[in-house]
Amino acid sequence: MTDAERDLRRLMPSGDPSAVADLLPTGRLVSTREDEEGAAPVLWLSDGPAPLGLWEELHRAHPRSGLWPLLLAPLRAGDGEFRPWGTGELSRLYAGEPDWYDPAAVLRTGWEYSTSVETDGEALDPEEVSELGRSVAPFLDGWPGVAPVTAGAAGSGGSGGDPEGAARALARELLAGDAQLRIGLVAAGSGAEALTVCGWSGPVNHEEDIAKVSAVLLDWERRYGTRLVQVGFAELELSVAAPPGDERAALRVAAEHFALCPDNVFQGTRTGTLTEYAPRLVGAARWSFWWD
């Protein structure tokens, strides 16, 4: 048994790490901050940049290996510590399980919190209330509910297109644009679940329980054919096989994005409005998220 296979068996004792062990460059296991000595690690991290094509090979092998590959980015370019991955800044202390949560309820709560006219128990002033209204128009009456399944999606609630092919295409694009990305492996059924398994805490200023984020991403996997490909310190990159096809549909999807990650709209657009954000989603093969 190789050293790589031995390490991977600590990640997933019941899996089949031999399916990928021989593909891997040198790397090491990473544990969360709370793990005691001898506790099972949560992530395998390559020592150096991800070789071209490796993510795709690992992705194809996932059904057998049970190890979901992630492209991992550091907090800053040239970060020698490769935070948070190399420093183990991961935590499962407040994490539940994705199947504890109804994704629609998670999004409703996120929307209501981000559109509240009170902050810390104090009412916003009229100008702030007006600005908030402009941000979430045309949904001034409240949470519009999750968007209908994209027209043409295959099956009942399932996404059309080719989700796995879209994921591999995005991986190629991301690797071509960033030579410092490393490979991570997590014992999980999907990228959405991998976030909870490894204890990623990127949205901690907005949501402490990463399992809620995983629950929403799992729902998007089913409805839009998304796949989680890259994770940074507080960023996610998802491939999308069944994006909205027009601006009307995109507005409803934009509301979901806002409910999960309000910084995408408040800080990611010039005007901080859904109506500016939504057109970017029409036919988009990639969704990006960033939490302040």
TrEMBL record:
InterPro entries: DUF4253. It comes from Kitasatospora phosalacinea. It holds the Pfam family DUF4253. It comes from the Bacteria. Residues 182-292 form the DUF4253 domain. This is DUF4253 domain-containing protein.
